[in-house]
Amino acid sequence: MLSPTPRTRHRRMKDNGRADRADLTAVLAAGLVAHLGVLVDGHPMVVPTVYGFDEQRIFLHGSVASRSLTVKNEVCVTVTVLDGLILARSVFEHGINYRSAMIYGVPVPVTDPDDLLYGLRLLTEHVAPGQWDYARPPSTKELAATTLLAVPLDEASVKISDGPPDDGDGPDAALGLWAGRLPVAATWGTPVADPLLPAGIEPPPHISNRTGRPITG
Amino acid sequence: MLSPTPRTRHRRMKDNGRADRADLTAVLAAGLVAHLGVLVDGHPMVVPTVYGFDEQRIFLHGSVASRSLTVKNEVCVTVTVLDGLILARSVFEHGINYRSAMIYGVPVPVTDPDDLLYGLRLLTEHVAPGQWDYARPPSTKELAATTLLAVPLDEASVKISDGPPDDGDGPDAALGLWAGRLPVAATWGTPVADPLLPAGIEPPPHISNRTGRPITG
């Protein structure tokens, strides 16, 4: 699609400059799991998957979408970060505060060995920074067994809902009810060692230092 | 569809008894946001939305999917709860621990006034138990402006990944690297009052008591 699409609240990232792209990458940086929507036998299927990204592409593990890849269909990749609840005076004005990015594009299987390593590194480092250099890198055989998809970050929309409920200056304010936000605080917990791990091997600092820190930016 | 579908790892809830249904409702109870996959102009679109559910149906706010509702297309509703990271000795064995439910069905707009109130109550109480009776209920005008969808819980699949990494008894164990899980702890934060709220109105206990508690079951 070379022209803006009819989908609402939609932006072509190439056309809309730095502000939109910064919003997009901020949401992608804050999220951990994407929901990939693919067409399977004419019906939408939505599967959760981890991802990595750079300025041009979002990378996804492709096994989840393998059946849809026989056709070069457009997919939708949605990353949502839940920030909290909006608790209003009226049921009608309740909602959630969240940041969400929706990316539309035709996924490209990553087959070039260097590009595959590059994408897998982005994916690993997005989820667990420091882990790519700590863990054993993929072997040639493992790389051959890995399906990685890249979706260009060319067409995307970003929605951000924050702030208080909407009925603070309407008639419902007179009800005297409490209203506001209830934030969600998602943090990393304490590392749990593999039961098969020999005694004396401690988690590396890039893992243990995360405990108590927010998982979203 | 009256016969089992060809989609893999798929279960017809009516046929597979209580264990599968209990798995499904446990995931739905633990999650807060669903990702709704709908077909728009032949392409999948994935939108985040809150939901409520009972034993038969999942209820979703319909405005997000309004354009797709001109056709009675099947949708996919996916609820994912992230439990943590699987940190293995090899990059290849990394992954996430999660619980996920995928529900397939044709959404039915809820138009009966009693059923609409019933579904909205489930939705509100799932996100904020106690809030339906605390807040002002929807007016007739508000109900008329509300689009609620119900998707039957008849065809669904549940995937649960937990436990340690998979390479603890392979050759990579000899690398001497730490491996295990890094849990995600999502808790409710401290309520933030609407800036327009008059002084002296405190959050009700059903809200303030949530602070520090896990958001997922």
What would you note in describing this structure?
Chains A, B: Residues 196-217 are annotated as: Disordered. Chains A, B: Pfam families: Pyridox_ox_2. The structure is a homodimer of 217-residue chains. In chain A, strands 1, 2, 3, 4, 5, 6, 7, 8, 9 and 10 form a 10-stranded antiparallel β-sheet that branches. In chain A, 21% of the residues lie in helices and 35% in strands. By secondary structure, chain A is α+β, with helices and mostly antiparallel strands. Chain A has 5 helices and 11 strands. In chain A, a hairpin with a 7-residue loop joins strand 5 and strand 6 (95-105). The first copy, chain A, folds into 2 domains: 11-184, Roll (Pnp Oxidase, Chain A), CATH 2.30.110.10; 186-217, no CATH class. The interface between A and B is large, with 92 and 92 residues. Strand 10 of chain A pairs antiparallel with strand 10 (180-188) of chain B.
Short description:
2 copies of one chain form a homodimer. Chain A has 217 residues and is of the alpha+beta class. Helices cover 21% and strands 35% of the residues of chain A.
